[in-house]
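[User] Could I get a sequence and structure tokens?

[Assistant]
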Amino acid sequence: MKILFKMMRKSFKYTMLAVAMVALVSCNSKSSDAKKAATLINKSIQQTHALKLDDAEKTYQKAQKIIDKYKEKEDSDEFLRLFAMFRDKEKKQNAK
């Protein structure tokens, strides 16, 4: 009985570690995607100002493809919050 209990505890620890790792990777991916989408949106805006409209459209579509991945998901609010934060941060840096 003790052996079974030890095995269950060990198994539980590994399961919890795996869940934590998946959560960590998921959050990192979301943040990375939000930053990339924000960068592409800001680049699209710059291209529009430079009248490079075909390039601006292509860049915007790349950003929109990333954003669409999160539209119907539970964590879309978190993604959009990160996206707005990165987008506005880059705008302020580019304005200087």
